[in-house]
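Allow me, if you will, to draw on your knowledge of protein folds for a short while. The matter concerns a single protein, recorded as an amino acid sequence and a row of C-alpha cells. Could you please explain, in whatever detail you think fit, how the C-alpha cells follow from the sequence? I remain grateful for any guidance, and I place the record below:

…
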Amino acid sequence: MNRDQVEGKIKDVAGKAQRAFGDATDDASQQIKGGAKQVEGKIQKGVGDAEEAADRADDNDKH
C-alpha cells in the first residue's frame, strides 16, 4: 500500500465517524463535513490505487 491509499482510507473512516456523530446529534454541519471527508478519502485512495496499478504495470513491462 502506498501513502495515498493509507491516508485516503483513514479520511474515509474518519468521515464516516463524523457523519455518524452528526446523525446521532442531528447536526447537519457535521453530517456534511463528514460526508465531504469521506468523499475526499475515497478519491485519495483511488489515486493511490491507480498509482499502485501503474507501478505494477511498469514492473511487469520491465520483466
In short: Residues 3-62 form one domain. The two ends are 21 Å apart (CA to CA). The CA atoms of residues 22 and 30 lie 5 Å apart. The helical segments are 3-25, 28-62.
